[in-house]
Amino acid sequence: MRAAIVGRGRWGQRVAGILESEGHAARMLSLRKAGEEKDTDFAERCARRLCAEASGAALVWLAVPPGAPQAALVRGALLAGKHVVVEKPWWGGAAEAADLASEANRRGLIAAVHFQYCYLHEWPALVSRFDAGDAEFQGTFTTARAARPDIPAGDNLATHLLAVRRRWFPRSRIGELHYGYGTDDCRHVEFRHDERTARVDFTTNAQPIVQRFLADVMGHAEVGAPFPLDLAFAAEVQSELARIEGSE
Questions:
Q1: Per its record, what are the GO molecular function terms (predicted)?
Q2: Architecture of domain 121-205 in CATH?
Q3: pLDDT per residue over 130-148, tens digit each?
Q4: Residue 185 in contact with residue 142, Cβ under 8 Å?
Q5: β-strand 186-193 against 136-142: which pairing, if any?
Q6: Strand positions, DSSP E, 93-233
């Protein structure tokens, strides 16, 4: 498979390395919105660039920060006839997500959001025990890295936890969530249901979760099946985060 990666930063380079290690060809591009350029014009310009410089690519991976015009970049990839992966968090809102999802479906394409921790191998075995209305889902996602002024901790870290719950344990209730910058590196999820408990610690994780995500995207694309971690899913995660932080 050939892929185009939009974004030449550290994460874009890492994605390129992962793709190439899996035997895929990756081409890196830079697409930036100009001054007062309208989103529709930018999307069309992106589509033209992708058609001209990445005509053989089946997938466009948007390795750009959320402050970038995500929705216009997604639309540009779809207009170019490409499947597209966008990084979380999704700041485009539910209405924009629904519109882009409709466009993707109409074109037989996938617009996926990269929630890689949904691909830890521990989750499926726990579903039968903890995906229940009286089960409690708790989680911690903290990092020693300094705070990022462009992405609040909730959007950058808590969304990983909320995505895991929504994907695998949607009937559980949300308990305490801890997340933040500038503290210990700690990533784990805890479950409680009746007398049963479980804990998944992925602070140190060597599983090929990005590779599993990519394989899942392309597997769904090959058979034309809807992808579960789509833009609507990401918009629901953001709405859930807003409800949690609004109640604190």
A1: nucleotide binding
A2: 2-Layer Sandwich (3.30)
A3: 999 999 999 999 999 998 8
A4: yes
A5: antiparallel
A6: 111-114, 136-142, 173-180, 186-193, 196-201
